[in-house]
Design goal:
There is one protein chain. The strands form four sheets. Strands 2-8-3-6 form a four-stranded antiparallel sheet, with no helix packed on it. Strands 10-11-13-12 form a four-stranded antiparallel sheet. It folds into two domains: 76 residues, Jelly Rolls (Sandwich), CATH 2.60.120.10; 78 residues, Winged helix-like DNA-binding domain superfamily/Winged helix DNA-binding domain (Arc Repressor Mutant, subunit A). It is globular. Helix 1 packs antiparallel against helix 2 and helix 3 crosses helix 4. The protein contains five helices and 13 strands. It is an alpha+beta fold.
């Protein structure tokens, strides 16, 4: 497994398991995600949550990689993560670049003027990054709530619910139990 910081593990370093919606302990400035998916986030004075990134196995997250305050890492699935000491780890340029590219991709997704365009781009990004192929298309098995998606896109939960309903009616997606199957043949050709 690759990591943002490469160095042999100290025998004293142990991974920790976190449940759905748990927060990674902020006392550790860096965490390597071993399995599962988490999001880094901040919030505005009015309580509006802003998703900064969505991270999976092999990614490094933590306050040491951000200048945003407040900053938290919330588990979107069950997560196993290892705390890292920034003093013991040396940056790996390729994975730092990957980290930046993922954040840029989310910034571009959020830059579309129409929410349905943002949504289809986000679903495609999630399918490529965290999906797995199933008979009907790509399963995004993250159990994201409509509010989670709204937080990523900077829109409302009501708008997300409406657009997902439209996508389902149009055959772009299939939904069940907060899981979304992105139908490849439809999603790639969806006209906004």
């Amino acid at each position: 497994m690759t990591s943002l910081f490469s160095s042999p593990f100290s025998s004293a370093v142990h991974s920790h398991d976190f449940g759905l919606r748990s927060l990674l302990d902020p006392r550790f400035k860096l965490w390597r995600i071993e399995s599962g998916v988490a999001r880094s986030l901040t919030w505005l004075e009015d309580g509006t949550i802003i998703t900064l990134g969505i991270w999976g196995a092999g990614d490094i997250v933590g306050q040491a990689l951000s200048c945003v305050d407040p900053y938290q890492v919330e588990c979107l699935t069950k997560v196993t993560a290892t705390p890292l000491s920034s003093e013991q780890w040396q940056p790996d340029a390729a994975l730092l670049l990957s980290h930046l590219q993922q954040m840029e991709q989310l910034a571009v997704i959020r830059s579309h003027r129409k929410v349905d365009a943002m949504m289809i781009k986000l679903l495609n990004w999630l399918a490529k990054r965290f999906g797995r192929e199933v008979e009907a298309g790509n399963l995004i098995d993250l159990k994201l709530t409509h509010q989670d998606i709204a937080d990523v896109l900077g829109t409302t939960r009501v708008t997300v619910t409406r657009i997902l309903g439209q996508f389902e009616e149009q055959g772009v997606i299939e939904r069940s139990l907060r899981r979304i199957v992105l139908r490849e043949s439809e999603a790639w050709h969806y006209e906004i």
